[in-house]
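FAQ
Q: What does a multi-component entry look like?
A: The components come first, one per line:
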Amino acid sequence: MDEHRDDIGSRFGMWLFIFTELLLFAGLFIVYSVYRYLNWQAFHLAAEELNTFIGALNTVLLLASSATIAMSITALQKKNKTLALALLGFTILVGLVFLVNKYFEWNLKIEHGLYPGSERLLEYGKGEVLFFGLYFFMTGLHALHIIVGVAFIGVVFFRIKNDRITHDNFVHLENAGLYWHLVDIIWIFLFPLFYLIT
Amino acid sequence: MTTDNTARAEPSFFEYKKHKGILAWILSTDHKRIGLLYLYSIMTFFIVGAILGLLMKLELIAPGKTIMEAKTYNGVFTLHGIIMIFLIVIPGLPAVFGNFMLPILIGAKDVAFPRLNLLSWYIYIFGAIVVLMSQFMSGGPPDTGWTFYAPYSFKTTTNMLPAVLGAFILGFSSILTGLNFIVTIHRMRAPGMTWLKMPLFPWALYGTAWIQLLATPIIGITLLMTVGERLFNIGFFDPALGGDPILYQHLFWIYSHPAVYVMILPAMGVISEILPTFAQKTIFGYKAIIFSTIAIAFVGYFVWGHHMFTSGMSGTALYVFSILTFLVAIPSGIKVFNWVSTIYKGSINLKTPFYWAVSFIFVFMIGGLTGLVLGALATNVHVHDTHFVVAHFHFIVFGGVGFAFMGAIHYWFPKMYGRMYDETWANMGWLIFFIGFLTLYLPMFYLGIAGMPRRYFDYLPQFHGGNIISSFGAIIMITGLLIIITNLVRSARMGPISTERNPWNGKTLEWTVESPPSLENFEEIPVIEKGPYEYE
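Then the predicted structure of the entire assembly, as tokens:
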């Protein structure tokens, strides 16, 4: 059977998948807004427990990585394979740094006894329980998407290295970029919802 | 097209084997083989689900404990629901006939992403295994019903986790199939096949695919939250921790109501294919059917609240959900009028698929009209959670999808296998099944109105009569089912060879290719100039 290639179809498929991912998070955003409406005071106080600096740092990191992956597509189109690989490598690195930051952030919260099911959290009240439940659930699910995104970019990295993805056949790189932007944009919404609205 | 109706240029897809034995199936990205993989897996699960249903009816043949304890009964109706909904009717028609027929109907060689298509099947099987594991682990089978309502779903000590996770995984398979079909329909239609020259089954699959894509993630995240609830005690739906169980119901039905249309739309598409062929007449109101498909898919998103009329909602919300529910009846009614008008003054060819199609219209009408009883606020409160509801959704879901599935399998059987089924046995199976179906479910309407609640293994003595009739009907129906399945399996292996390209004188593209189709379906991609059902 002859190889069927349809770049537009492939990108179209990726966009549809991104749609479903957004809807997946939409369910959580609904839950967040309902519980914020019901417990706005508790949400306000609980949000002050979060470290805005680490949150902001992670935001900057993700934005930078989104820029580098977009640049790597242009680099590949201009047949500069080395630069494309370097930019992708940077993107992967930043994704990993994000996870490390997240690890320390979570760890601190857990040390302070602020995690779902902890005794300290139960003493606080229902609004705080829900806030930290949502915090861990939503950032956890987002971190999972970072891991998937890094793996996806990793595969693309090696495919470029082995010349499977080239300057005239780069739809997989574009799709990896689209996915990474999605991961990025979800964080752009999570950051103010948890860290900034206090 | 060749003049000789049975001539073959290429070997059939059955003969094309890259690998040997079972690997030829489980490693093949051919849409036809994947369709058949789904068919065999779904049929296997269906037999299990049907046996569970029969066991329930046997339990209910007399008041009090008959063959099982209350706890076992809870486990049985939960598993029956999970298998029938998540493993059979949601993937059902799109995964089996969508995979097999969609590319052929639109004049393509395969779906847009063949490897993703095979991956969907693997995810499906993996999800099924995870779901079924819940039966054999130490905590005991889940007993919440297929709806996993909070807070019971995270308070019960039974194995909820595999059941919920499995349903989540199955949702993924459904999303990927939907995504694949949307891209296929957009990108791979044969030259000249404009949107308004596309057959109605692909149109139905298109509407379905959008629902799969846009609604399934919501149940995905809801089920994940339930998992979080059980594992980490997060409290989203636990009133003790500030959560709200009603919110779970909303999120659950935001998906699970549109899922009803994932089930029924492809069934309607199949009926719209069968009727013109066996009436030998152009379908009546082609555009109206397309419009009603889209309308059902669209309005179907906004009616989830009618599952929750007694759960606690504002009065305004109740009115709005009720009136929106009534609106869905309009496009459904349009379709029924179109089908009936298609048969009117047609040159009717009384074959098995036609019997299934007309009996579909009959049961669909009963199911639809009783749906209006449930959509009206006053009557809903009376019959909520009674056997009336059970009868209603079995008429729609089983009567709708089941009858269309049976119609589809008989209709496309010669195309898929290049053999013909035994018509006498097929018709007899249909008749017995149909009689059994009505005997089984019609008394349930009466029982529900009289006040018999659903999901109990026991009942008051005054409900005995209706239950005896119903259980008796279950036995008749299972007999019919056995005849049908035996006939199909036997005919697929040793039925009379039927390599004729067009045994029914159909007009859609699948009847222009060889039976069974070759690997690439078409010798050359056809150019479409006419609408799909032009008999004049």
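Q: Is there any commentary attached?
A: Sometimes. For this entry: The domain at 30-512 of chain B is CATH 1.20.210.10 (Cytochrome C Oxidase; Chain A).
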